[in-house]
Here is the input.
Amino acid sequence: MKQLIILSCLFFISLETFSSNLVEFSSIKELPSGEVRITFKLSKIALVKSYALDEPSRIVIDIKDSELKGELENRQNHPIKKIRASKDGSTSRIVLDLYESVYWKKPWQIEKKDHVLLIFEIKKDKKLSKNIRDIIVAIDAGHGGRDPGAVGKLNILEKDITLLIARELERTLRDTKGYKPVMIREDDSFVDLNDRYQNARKVGADIFVSIHADAFRLSSVKGVSVFVWSEEASSITAANLSKKELANNPEVKAKIGKLDVNDFDEDAARTLYQLVYEAKIENSIILGNKILDKLRLDPYTRLHKKNVEFADFRVLKSIDIPSVLVESGFISNAEDAARLKGKPGRRMIARSIFLGIHDYFKEKPKPNTFMDPVQSNIEYTIQKGDVISEIAIRFGVTVDEIIDLNNLRGKAIYPGQNIKIAI
Ligand SMILES: [Zn+2]
Here is the structure.
Protein backbone atom coordinates (compact mmCIF):
# COMPACT_ATOMS: atom_id res chain seq x y z
CA MET A 1 0.00 0.00 0.00
CA LYS A 2 2.76 2.33 0.98
CA GLN A 3 4.59 1.56 -2.26
CA LEU A 4 1.49 2.29 -4.28
CA ILE A 5 1.18 5.72 -2.76
CA ILE A 6 4.82 6.50 -3.57
CA LEU A 7 4.32 5.31 -7.13
CA SER A 8 1.27 7.43 -7.71
CA CYS A 9 3.13 10.40 -6.26
CA LEU A 10 5.95 9.90 -8.73
CA PHE A 11 3.48 9.65 -11.56
CA PHE A 12 1.88 12.88 -10.48
CA ILE A 13 5.24 14.66 -10.26
CA SER A 14 6.35 13.52 -13.70
CA LEU A 15 3.06 14.61 -15.20
CA GLU A 16 3.51 17.99 -13.60
CA THR A 17 7.05 18.30 -14.95
CA PHE A 18 6.46 17.20 -18.50
CA SER A 19 2.90 18.39 -19.13
CA SER A 20 3.00 20.44 -22.27
CA ASN A 21 3.43 24.15 -22.19
CA LEU A 22 0.62 25.88 -24.08
CA VAL A 23 1.66 28.79 -26.31
CA GLU A 24 -1.00 31.27 -27.26
CA PHE A 25 -0.69 34.47 -29.26
CA SER A 26 -1.55 37.45 -27.07
CA SER A 27 -0.87 40.81 -28.70
CA ILE A 28 1.15 42.88 -31.11
CA LYS A 29 1.54 46.60 -30.68
CA GLU A 30 3.75 49.50 -31.58
CA LEU A 31 5.32 51.25 -28.60
CA PRO A 32 5.76 55.04 -28.48
CA SER A 33 9.52 54.45 -28.72
CA GLY A 34 9.06 52.86 -32.14
CA GLU A 35 9.52 49.22 -31.17
CA VAL A 36 6.97 46.66 -32.21
CA ARG A 37 6.22 44.39 -29.26
CA ILE A 38 4.86 40.90 -29.74
CA THR A 39 3.53 39.00 -26.75
CA PHE A 40 2.69 35.32 -26.35
CA LYS A 41 1.09 33.69 -23.37
CA LEU A 42 2.67 30.49 -22.02
CA SER A 43 1.45 28.24 -19.24
CA LYS A 44 4.93 28.09 -17.68
CA ILE A 45 8.56 29.18 -18.11
CA ALA A 46 10.05 27.58 -21.21
CA LEU A 47 13.41 26.79 -22.69
CA VAL A 48 13.44 29.33 -25.53
CA LYS A 49 15.99 29.55 -28.32
CA SER A 50 15.92 32.53 -30.66
CA TYR A 51 17.97 33.60 -33.63
CA ALA A 52 17.80 35.91 -36.60
CA LEU A 53 18.43 35.10 -40.24
CA ASP A 54 19.10 37.42 -43.17
CA GLU A 55 18.13 37.32 -46.83
CA PRO A 56 15.25 37.03 -46.43
CA SER A 57 15.16 38.79 -43.11
CA ARG A 58 13.44 36.81 -40.36
CA ILE A 59 13.54 35.98 -36.69
CA VAL A 60 12.93 32.49 -35.37
CA ILE A 61 11.79 31.67 -31.84
CA ASP A 62 11.77 28.05 -30.73
CA ILE A 63 9.79 27.18 -27.63
CA LYS A 64 10.81 23.72 -26.45
CA ASP A 65 8.25 21.22 -25.15
CA SER A 66 5.23 23.23 -26.06
CA GLU A 67 1.97 23.12 -27.96
CA LEU A 68 0.52 25.93 -30.01
CA LYS A 69 -2.99 26.91 -29.11
CA GLY A 70 -5.36 29.16 -31.06
CA GLU A 71 -4.74 31.41 -34.02
CA LEU A 72 -1.94 33.85 -34.79
CA GLU A 73 -2.85 37.40 -35.55
CA ASN A 74 -1.69 38.53 -38.92
CA ARG A 75 -2.47 42.19 -39.00
CA GLN A 76 0.22 44.05 -40.95
CA ASN A 77 2.71 45.72 -38.62
CA HIS A 78 5.58 47.07 -40.63
CA PRO A 79 8.36 45.81 -40.67
CA ILE A 80 6.65 42.48 -39.98
CA LYS A 81 5.49 40.86 -43.19
CA LYS A 82 3.97 37.83 -41.55
CA ILE A 83 4.00 35.85 -38.31
CA ARG A 84 3.83 32.12 -38.86
CA ALA A 85 4.12 29.10 -36.62
CA SER A 86 5.04 25.49 -37.11
CA LYS A 87 5.84 22.40 -35.11
CA ASP A 88 9.18 20.61 -35.04
CA GLY A 89 8.81 17.56 -32.82
CA SER A 90 7.90 18.87 -29.39
CA THR A 91 9.16 22.36 -30.27
CA SER A 92 6.83 25.16 -31.33
CA ARG A 93 8.50 27.43 -33.84
CA ILE A 94 7.38 31.02 -34.35
CA VAL A 95 8.80 32.83 -37.36
CA LEU A 96 8.62 36.53 -38.02
CA ASP A 97 9.06 37.29 -41.71
CA LEU A 98 10.40 40.82 -42.06
CA TYR A 99 10.52 43.42 -44.82
CA GLU A 100 13.92 44.70 -43.69
CA SER A 101 16.69 44.29 -41.15
CA VAL A 102 15.83 45.16 -37.56
CA TYR A 103 17.40 45.71 -34.18
CA TRP A 104 15.79 42.97 -32.09
CA LYS A 105 15.68 42.14 -28.44
CA LYS A 106 16.02 38.56 -27.33
CA PRO A 107 12.69 37.25 -26.01
CA TRP A 108 12.20 37.47 -22.26
CA GLN A 109 9.67 35.87 -19.95
CA ILE A 110 7.64 37.47 -17.21
CA GLU A 111 5.98 35.30 -14.62
CA LYS A 112 2.39 36.28 -13.84
CA LYS A 113 0.08 34.69 -11.28
CA ASP A 114 -1.20 31.82 -13.41
CA HIS A 115 0.66 32.22 -16.69
CA VAL A 116 3.89 33.48 -18.24
CA LEU A 117 4.31 36.20 -20.83
CA LEU A 118 6.88 35.70 -23.57
CA ILE A 119 7.74 39.10 -24.99
CA PHE A 120 10.01 40.21 -27.79
CA GLU A 121 10.58 43.48 -29.52
CA ILE A 122 11.95 44.58 -32.84
CA LYS A 123 12.76 48.03 -34.13
CA LYS A 124 13.51 48.99 -37.69
CA ASP A 125 16.78 50.76 -38.20
CA LYS A 126 17.69 52.00 -41.66
CA LYS A 127 21.41 51.81 -40.81
CA LEU A 128 21.39 48.06 -40.26
CA SER A 129 22.39 45.73 -43.06
CA LYS A 130 21.51 42.63 -41.04
CA ASN A 131 19.36 41.78 -38.05
CA ILE A 132 21.23 42.52 -34.87
CA ARG A 133 20.77 42.29 -31.11
CA ASP A 134 22.66 42.92 -27.86
CA ILE A 135 24.39 40.19 -25.90
CA ILE A 136 22.72 39.79 -22.52
CA VAL A 137 24.99 39.27 -19.54
CA ALA A 138 23.34 38.28 -16.26
CA ILE A 139 25.40 39.61 -13.35
CA ASP A 140 24.75 37.89 -10.06
CA ALA A 141 26.06 39.70 -6.99
CA GLY A 142 26.36 36.92 -4.41
CA HIS A 143 24.31 36.95 -1.18
CA GLY A 144 22.40 40.09 -0.08
CA GLY A 145 19.75 41.25 2.35
CA ARG A 146 19.56 39.00 5.41
CA ASP A 147 22.32 36.80 3.95
CA PRO A 148 25.61 38.69 4.43
CA GLY A 149 27.79 35.89 3.02
CA ALA A 150 31.28 35.78 4.48
CA VAL A 151 32.33 38.31 7.09
CA GLY A 152 35.89 39.44 6.66
CA LYS A 153 38.64 41.55 8.08
CA LEU A 154 38.18 45.34 8.22
CA ASN A 155 34.49 44.62 8.97
CA ILE A 156 33.68 43.98 5.36
CA LEU A 157 30.72 41.85 4.35
CA GLU A 158 30.82 39.67 1.27
CA LYS A 159 27.38 40.86 0.12
CA ASP A 160 28.62 44.50 -0.07
CA ILE A 161 31.79 43.64 -1.97
CA THR A 162 29.95 41.45 -4.49
CA LEU A 163 27.38 44.17 -5.22
CA LEU A 164 30.07 46.82 -5.72
CA ILE A 165 32.03 44.64 -8.14
CA ALA A 166 28.79 43.72 -9.93
CA ARG A 167 27.91 47.42 -10.35
CA GLU A 168 31.35 48.16 -11.74
CA LEU A 169 30.94 45.37 -14.30
CA GLU A 170 27.39 46.49 -15.08
CA ARG A 171 28.63 50.01 -15.81
CA THR A 172 31.30 48.84 -18.24
CA LEU A 173 28.90 46.53 -20.09
CA ARG A 174 26.14 49.15 -20.19
CA ASP A 175 28.35 51.75 -21.87
CA THR A 176 29.93 49.34 -24.34
CA LYS A 177 28.05 48.89 -27.58
CA GLY A 178 26.61 45.44 -28.11
CA TYR A 179 26.23 44.40 -24.49
CA LYS A 180 23.25 44.58 -22.17
CA PRO A 181 23.87 43.79 -18.50
CA VAL A 182 21.06 42.55 -16.29
CA MET A 183 21.58 42.61 -12.54
CA ILE A 184 20.11 39.61 -10.72
CA ARG A 185 19.98 41.81 -7.61
CA GLU A 186 20.37 45.57 -7.84
CA ASP A 187 20.47 46.42 -4.16
CA ASP A 188 20.95 44.90 -0.74
CA SER A 189 18.10 42.44 -1.08
CA PHE A 190 17.80 38.71 -0.58
CA VAL A 191 17.32 36.57 -3.69
CA ASP A 192 17.29 32.81 -3.24
CA LEU A 193 19.56 30.57 -5.27
CA ASN A 194 16.81 29.04 -7.39
CA ASP A 195 15.50 32.47 -8.36
CA ARG A 196 18.97 33.59 -9.42
CA TYR A 197 19.36 31.15 -12.29
CA GLN A 198 15.63 31.10 -13.03
CA ASN A 199 15.74 34.87 -13.45
CA ALA A 200 18.71 34.59 -15.79
CA ARG A 201 16.56 32.35 -18.00
CA LYS A 202 13.62 34.76 -17.83
CA VAL A 203 15.71 37.69 -19.06
CA GLY A 204 17.18 35.59 -21.88
CA ALA A 205 20.76 35.77 -20.59
CA ASP A 206 23.47 34.63 -22.98
CA ILE A 207 25.90 34.09 -20.11
CA PHE A 208 25.69 34.21 -16.31
CA VAL A 209 28.43 35.52 -14.02
CA SER A 210 28.13 35.11 -10.26
CA ILE A 211 30.42 37.22 -8.10
CA HIS A 212 31.53 36.15 -4.64
CA ALA A 213 34.30 36.69 -2.11
CA ASP A 214 35.48 34.00 0.22
CA ALA A 215 36.57 33.51 3.84
CA PHE A 216 38.69 30.78 5.36
CA ARG A 217 39.77 29.91 8.90
CA LEU A 218 43.43 30.32 7.90
CA SER A 219 43.90 34.00 7.31
CA SER A 220 46.99 33.39 5.17
CA VAL A 221 44.85 31.90 2.37
CA LYS A 222 44.27 34.44 -0.37
CA GLY A 223 43.62 34.98 -4.06
CA VAL A 224 41.01 34.69 -6.77
CA SER A 225 39.35 31.52 -8.11
CA VAL A 226 36.93 30.83 -10.94
CA PHE A 227 34.36 28.03 -10.74
CA VAL A 228 32.03 26.26 -13.14
CA TRP A 229 29.26 23.84 -12.25
CA SER A 230 29.72 20.14 -11.87
CA GLU A 231 27.47 17.49 -10.44
CA GLU A 232 30.46 15.83 -8.88
CA ALA A 233 32.65 18.58 -7.56
CA SER A 234 36.21 17.80 -8.52
CA SER A 235 37.79 19.76 -5.72
CA ILE A 236 37.28 18.99 -2.05
CA THR A 237 37.54 22.65 -1.13
CA ALA A 238 34.82 23.46 -3.61
CA ALA A 239 32.59 20.70 -2.28
CA ASN A 240 33.05 22.04 1.24
CA LEU A 241 32.27 25.52 0.07
CA SER A 242 28.99 24.59 -1.54
CA LYS A 243 28.01 22.56 1.52
CA LYS A 244 28.89 25.56 3.63
CA GLU A 245 26.70 27.77 1.50
CA LEU A 246 23.80 25.47 2.27
CA ALA A 247 24.63 25.02 5.93
CA ASN A 248 24.81 28.77 6.42
CA ASN A 249 21.50 29.26 4.80
CA PRO A 250 18.63 27.15 6.13
CA GLU A 251 16.07 28.99 4.02
CA VAL A 252 17.94 28.15 0.84
CA LYS A 253 18.18 24.56 2.00
CA ALA A 254 14.46 24.38 2.63
CA LYS A 255 13.66 25.81 -0.78
CA ILE A 256 15.72 23.29 -2.74
CA GLY A 257 13.60 20.70 -4.45
CA LYS A 258 10.51 22.82 -4.02
CA LEU A 259 10.32 24.68 -7.30
CA ASP A 260 7.25 26.70 -8.08
CA VAL A 261 4.92 25.14 -10.63
CA ASN A 262 5.74 27.82 -13.17
CA ASP A 263 9.48 27.42 -12.84
CA PHE A 264 11.51 25.72 -15.49
CA ASP A 265 12.84 22.42 -14.10
CA GLU A 266 16.57 22.43 -14.85
CA ASP A 267 17.09 18.96 -13.36
CA ALA A 268 14.53 17.33 -15.63
CA ALA A 269 15.77 19.34 -18.61
CA ARG A 270 19.35 18.22 -18.09
CA THR A 271 18.34 14.67 -18.98
CA LEU A 272 16.09 15.77 -21.84
CA TYR A 273 18.63 18.07 -23.44
CA GLN A 274 21.90 16.31 -22.81
CA LEU A 275 23.69 17.89 -25.78
CA VAL A 276 22.59 21.39 -24.85
CA TYR A 277 23.85 20.75 -21.34
CA GLU A 278 27.20 19.37 -22.52
CA ALA A 279 27.73 22.45 -24.71
CA LYS A 280 26.89 24.65 -21.72
CA ILE A 281 29.54 22.98 -19.56
CA GLU A 282 32.11 23.22 -22.34
CA ASN A 283 31.34 26.89 -22.92
CA SER A 284 31.36 27.62 -19.18
CA ILE A 285 34.90 26.22 -18.99
CA ILE A 286 35.99 28.38 -21.96
CA LEU A 287 34.42 31.46 -20.36
CA GLY A 288 36.00 30.63 -16.99
CA ASN A 289 39.42 30.25 -18.59
CA LYS A 290 39.12 33.54 -20.47
CA ILE A 291 38.31 35.37 -17.22
CA LEU A 292 41.10 33.53 -15.40
CA ASP A 293 43.59 34.51 -18.15
CA LYS A 294 42.72 38.17 -17.60
CA LEU A 295 42.91 37.86 -13.81
CA ARG A 296 46.35 36.32 -14.26
CA LEU A 297 47.51 39.48 -16.05
CA ASP A 298 46.10 41.79 -13.38
CA PRO A 299 49.10 43.10 -11.41
CA TYR A 300 47.05 43.72 -8.24
CA THR A 301 45.40 40.33 -7.97
CA ARG A 302 46.84 36.92 -7.09
CA LEU A 303 45.27 33.67 -8.17
CA HIS A 304 44.25 31.20 -5.50
CA LYS A 305 43.90 28.35 -8.03
CA LYS A 306 45.51 28.55 -11.44
CA ASN A 307 42.88 26.42 -13.19
CA VAL A 308 39.12 26.68 -13.44
CA GLU A 309 37.59 24.77 -10.53
CA PHE A 310 34.46 22.62 -10.48
CA ALA A 311 31.81 22.81 -7.80
CA ASP A 312 28.15 22.02 -7.38
CA PHE A 313 27.25 25.66 -6.80
CA ARG A 314 23.53 25.55 -7.36
CA VAL A 315 23.45 29.05 -8.82
CA LEU A 316 25.43 27.80 -11.86
CA LYS A 317 23.15 24.91 -12.76
CA SER A 318 21.12 26.31 -15.66
CA ILE A 319 21.23 23.74 -18.46
CA ASP A 320 22.00 26.03 -21.37
CA ILE A 321 23.41 29.34 -20.12
CA PRO A 322 27.22 29.27 -19.79
CA SER A 323 27.75 30.13 -16.12
CA VAL A 324 30.79 30.94 -14.01
CA LEU A 325 31.37 31.97 -10.42
CA VAL A 326 34.24 34.29 -9.56
CA GLU A 327 35.53 34.22 -5.99
CA SER A 328 37.21 37.60 -6.01
CA GLY A 329 39.45 36.91 -3.02
CA PHE A 330 39.48 35.86 0.62
CA ILE A 331 38.17 38.64 2.80
CA SER A 332 39.56 36.68 5.78
CA ASN A 333 43.00 37.65 4.47
CA ALA A 334 44.17 41.17 5.33
CA GLU A 335 45.72 41.84 1.93
CA ASP A 336 42.70 40.63 -0.07
CA ALA A 337 40.31 42.47 2.28
CA ALA A 338 42.21 45.72 1.75
CA ARG A 339 42.26 45.16 -2.02
CA LEU A 340 38.52 44.53 -2.20
CA LYS A 341 37.65 47.34 0.18
CA GLY A 342 39.13 49.85 -2.23
CA LYS A 343 37.58 50.86 -5.52
CA PRO A 344 40.72 50.24 -7.62
CA GLY A 345 40.93 46.63 -6.40
CA ARG A 346 37.28 45.96 -7.17
CA ARG A 347 37.59 47.67 -10.53
CA MET A 348 40.42 45.34 -11.51
CA ILE A 349 38.23 42.31 -10.82
CA ALA A 350 35.38 43.79 -12.88
CA ARG A 351 37.80 44.66 -15.68
CA SER A 352 39.16 41.11 -15.85
CA ILE A 353 35.63 39.71 -15.94
CA PHE A 354 34.63 42.12 -18.72
CA LEU A 355 37.73 41.45 -20.82
CA GLY A 356 37.29 37.71 -20.27
CA ILE A 357 33.65 37.91 -21.41
CA HIS A 358 34.71 39.85 -24.52
CA ASP A 359 37.41 37.28 -25.32
CA TYR A 360 34.86 34.53 -24.88
CA PHE A 361 32.60 36.07 -27.52
CA LYS A 362 35.59 36.49 -29.82
CA GLU A 363 36.01 32.73 -29.67
CA LYS A 364 32.31 31.91 -29.53
CA PRO A 365 30.60 34.66 -31.53
CA LYS A 366 26.84 34.87 -31.22
CA PRO A 367 25.24 35.10 -34.66
CA ASN A 368 23.36 38.32 -35.39
CA THR A 369 24.85 40.28 -32.51
CA PHE A 370 27.32 43.14 -32.51
CA MET A 371 29.96 40.50 -31.66
CA ASP A 372 29.55 38.63 -34.95
CA PRO A 373 32.13 39.05 -36.18
CA VAL A 374 33.76 40.50 -33.09
CA GLN A 375 34.99 43.98 -33.83
CA SER A 376 38.65 44.62 -33.13
CA ASN A 377 37.60 47.91 -31.56
CA ILE A 378 34.77 48.20 -29.09
CA GLU A 379 32.64 51.33 -29.04
CA TYR A 380 32.26 53.03 -25.68
CA THR A 381 29.89 55.90 -24.90
CA ILE A 382 31.39 58.62 -22.69
CA GLN A 383 29.38 59.21 -19.52
CA LYS A 384 29.15 62.30 -17.37
CA GLY A 385 32.19 62.44 -15.08
CA ASP A 386 34.32 60.13 -17.24
CA VAL A 387 38.00 60.91 -17.61
CA ILE A 388 40.21 59.19 -20.16
CA SER A 389 42.72 57.90 -17.61
CA GLU A 390 39.98 56.10 -15.74
CA ILE A 391 38.46 54.67 -18.94
CA ALA A 392 41.92 53.41 -19.88
CA ILE A 393 42.24 51.55 -16.55
CA ARG A 394 38.79 50.01 -16.92
CA PHE A 395 39.59 48.54 -20.32
CA GLY A 396 43.24 47.73 -19.68
CA VAL A 397 44.67 50.09 -22.33
CA THR A 398 46.81 53.23 -22.15
CA VAL A 399 45.61 56.83 -22.34
CA ASP A 400 47.76 57.37 -25.44
CA GLU A 401 46.18 54.42 -27.20
CA ILE A 402 42.71 55.90 -26.69
CA ILE A 403 43.84 59.39 -27.73
CA ASP A 404 45.58 58.19 -30.90
CA LEU A 405 42.82 55.84 -32.02
CA ASN A 406 40.18 58.56 -31.67
CA ASN A 407 42.32 61.47 -32.77
CA LEU A 408 41.63 63.25 -29.47
CA ARG A 409 44.90 65.12 -29.04
CA GLY A 410 44.12 68.57 -27.71
CA LYS A 411 40.38 67.90 -27.69
CA ALA A 412 37.99 67.51 -24.80
CA ILE A 413 35.68 64.53 -24.44
CA TYR A 414 31.97 65.03 -23.77
CA PRO A 415 29.10 62.88 -22.46
CA GLY A 416 27.36 60.93 -25.20
CA GLN A 417 30.44 60.88 -27.41
CA ASN A 418 31.31 57.46 -28.81
CA ILE A 419 34.94 56.49 -28.77
CA LYS A 420 36.73 53.41 -29.98
CA ILE A 421 38.93 51.30 -27.74
CA ALA A 422 41.14 48.52 -29.07
CA ILE A 423 41.03 45.56 -26.68
ZN1 LIG B 1 29.65 33.63 -1.40
